[in-house]
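RUN3B protein
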Amino acid sequence: SFCLKGEGLDGSFPAVIDYTPYLKFTQSSDSISSDEEELRTLGSSGSEGSTPENIGPPFITDENSWYNKCKRVEQKYRLALEQKGYLEELVRLRENQLSESVSQNKLLLQRIEDMDLAHKMEKEQLEYIIVELQDQL
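Predicted C-alpha cells:
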C-alpha cells in the first residue's frame, strides 16, 4: 500500500519502512519445555542427596542437551542482537527527524514573529492614513 500524508512531497524526507509491528516475541512450546527442563535441572543440582553414581552416564547425554541449549540461547541472542541493531537504527532515524522538525519549527516561529511585526507596522500605517484622512475632512 502507498499512503501520502502532509504537504512535504519534495523528497527531502527519507523513505522509512517501519518494521516494529513485526518485532514480537512469541514463546514456542519448544522453548517452554526447555525452560521447564532447565528449571528441573537447576532444582535438582542444588539437592544434597546427589551421589557420584548419578553423575557418570547421564552427564554424557546431558552434554548433547547442553549443546542444544547453548545453540538455542545463541540463536535467541543473535535474534535479540539483530532486533537491537534495528531499533537503534530506528532511534537514530527518529532523532534525525526530530532535530529536523525542531529546526523547521524554529524557522516557522521566526517567520510568524516577522509576519506579526510586519502586520503591526502595516496596521500603524493604516491608522496613520485614517487619521490624516479624518483631518482632511
